[in-house]
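Technical annex B. To support the medicinal chemistry partners, we prepared a structural model of the target in complex with pyridoxal-5'-phosphate, based solely on the information shown next.
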Amino acid sequence: MNQSAGFGTRAIHAGQSPDPTTGAIMTPVYMTSTYVQEAPGVIKGFDYSRTRNPTRSALERNLAGLEGGKHGLCFASGMAAINCVLNLLKAGDHVVAGNDLYGGTYRICTTLYAKFGVSFSFVDMSDLDGVRKAIQPNTRLVMTETPSNPLLRLTDLTALAKLCRERGVLSMCDNTFATPYLQNPLALGIDAVIHSTTKYLGGHSDVVGGALVVNDDDLAKQLAHFQNSVGGTPGPMDCFLVLRGTKTLHVRMDRHATNAIAIARDLEAHPRVKRVWYPGLPSHAQFALAQRQMRNGGGMVSFELDASVEDAKRVASSFRIFSLAESLGGVESLVDHPVTMTHGSIPREERRKAGFEDGLIRLSVGIEELADLRQDLADALAVL
Ligand SMILES: *Cc1c(COP(=O)(O)O)cnc(C)c1O
């Protein structure tokens, strides 16, 4: 598939062609661990499914096509993809990371890699001067997420990539919230993009997976070596599900964003809502950057209620269409009270320093009928 084809065309066709033996239009689920060899060492590109599997290869090519990158690598989870990048480090190395990273990323850094002698500085990625100051002579990697979670802060990826290039530091962006439809970090100069395909790429809350996309051949070779050595690879059925999901990514993301901005506007107009965070709203502190860097504001909306923890929990439990659940990015709407759910492991003082209060609620706005979602939100807020 030609890289210059439009996004929707690449979503459906990149990395896939009808099966040559049967003509099956969809990539088969190759449920096999091994492959017959014509003679010792003579293979048709596949010898063992940890190393390579045709269904996974199709997904890897598809995701590379969507991110506009040369090499895609798929994993059993987003965390396994992040771990693969962290495998590049050795004792004595230093990493600069965002201070509002996905909780699991913070945990793998602080409880696993710290033990092996890798040190970390967690900084506000929206402040490039702060990032510059945090880079040390032994810094090898800068990790960011944009939009971040749960406050939907943005990183200026072009500026961050330039800074990292100047300092000879590898840059990585977790593009899970934006998806390749909204922004392509590689095109802005970032070295490695990771995804939790569990979220928007899969899109139907029925699979856990991860992916990594890079342009540099040597970097890809190293990462593929870790992928094969460590083995956190996805099974063919999981790859098939993600491959089915990416075919409708562009259609879903447009609808997620149309619904989300309407919900965000309703929230802004509500008397009991103190603040709303949505990158597609002019009230977002980095609206200009969002306009420049993202195709639309995405499907995630966070807001702070003028209410106690108990009242916030009551509101979060009062929706009928939005389901009270962690995770995000599926076709169905979800509501999260970060303080007691997704971000409960962060001490209260740390949370408040990072800027989120007890009344914070995060919505993953789905693609249901907008009128029903708006009514559900109004009814839930009415319990206050
Ligand atoms: C969910 C998520 C991850 C982790 O992915 P898993 O598939 O759950 O391992 C990493 N980063 C972000 C931004 C996420 O939302």
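Notes passed to the chemistry partners:
The chain has two domains: 7-246, 249-381.
The domain at 7-246 is CATH 3.40.640.10 (Aspartate Aminotransferase; domain 2).
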